[in-house]
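Narrative of accomplishments. A recurring question from our advisory board has been how the design workflow behaves on a single, concrete structure rather than in aggregate. To address it, we present the structure tokens for one chain from the evaluation set, followed by the sequence designed for it. No filtering or post-editing was applied between the two.
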């Protein structure tokens, strides 16, 4: 076990979301977005949230990160109500949002501007996280010299460099091609194991949610409610060909009526082996 794991695991956050309701006013009318959300997330847990557009997934992340405070209910980190943004909570968006005039190490270092660390400590932390996301040798590269996947690695390093208790990921691989996305899912699994912190992933991709999550929270829309919480009791690191992962994926897809056509006419047990290798 590395020192990174032991330090970070000790700092992982416990998140409790209790009866959270959120609404917006649109053209003079009240639009409910979230209704009665209850979630308990243990320290170091990886939680995936899936749901169709409009179910309030990203709104929930905005509340957890502290970008909005106008809601009913409680969002508690280690027993204290979240108020405003904090270095204890990092976030990675679908767009990497790197500043094009800064290098890789400078973009990562931006997250440390309000840190109490000395200059030498900041430099060491940036280098450690460059290595964590596998970008050694690209420290002085600019965003236009990076692929989309490499840019997202920089964004992940920037989200982690402050050693937050929780890292929130809002569709972080949604704009990437399928092969790059699959590779970065593997990398995120490795990084999460190395850092040991709590991670919350919002995604439309059920396969991604099941592959990465310790549990999958299925939401239904308008207003956003939790339809079901599905545990994923498969040890990490995981392989995509794992039969249990495939069973859980099909189980979650049923919640959205998204089973493959052959599964709609033929029992799962008759085709499970084929589906495992096709996944």
């Amino acid at each position: 076990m590395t020192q990174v794991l032991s330090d970070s695991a000790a700092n992982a956050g416990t998140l409790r979301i209790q009866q959270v309701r959120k609404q917006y006013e649109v053209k003079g009318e009240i639009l409910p977005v979230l209704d009665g959300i209850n979630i308990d997330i243990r320290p170091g847990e990886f939680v995936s949230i899936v749901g169709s557009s409009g179910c309030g997934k990203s709104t929930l992340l905005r509340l957890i990160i502290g970008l909005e405070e106008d809601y009913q209910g409680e969002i508690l980190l280690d027993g204290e109500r979240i108020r405003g943004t904090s270095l204890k909570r990092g976030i990675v968006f679908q767009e990497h949002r790197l500043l094009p005039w800064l290098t890789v190490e400078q973009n990562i270092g931006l997250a440390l501007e309000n840190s109490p660390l000395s200059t030498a400590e900041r430099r060491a932390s940036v280098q450690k996280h460059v290595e964590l996301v596998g970008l050694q040798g690209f420290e002085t590269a600019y965003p236009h010299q990076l692929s989309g996947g490499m840019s997202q690695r920089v964004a992940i390093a920037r989200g982690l460099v402050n050693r937050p208790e929780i890292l929130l990921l809002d569709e972080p691989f949604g704009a990437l091609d399928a092969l790059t996305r699959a590779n970065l899912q593997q990398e995120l699994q490795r990084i999460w194991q190395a850092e040991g912190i709590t991670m919350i992933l919002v995604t439309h991709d059920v396969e991604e949610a099941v592959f990465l999550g310790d549990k999958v929270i299925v939401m239904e829309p308008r207003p956003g409610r939790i339809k079901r919480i599905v545990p994923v009791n498969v040890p990490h690191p995981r392989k995509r060909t794992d039969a249990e992962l495939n069973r859980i994926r099909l189980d979650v897809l049923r919640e959205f009526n998204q089973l493959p056509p052959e599964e709609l006419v033929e029992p799962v047990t008759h085709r499970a082996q084929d589906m495992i290798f096709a996944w």
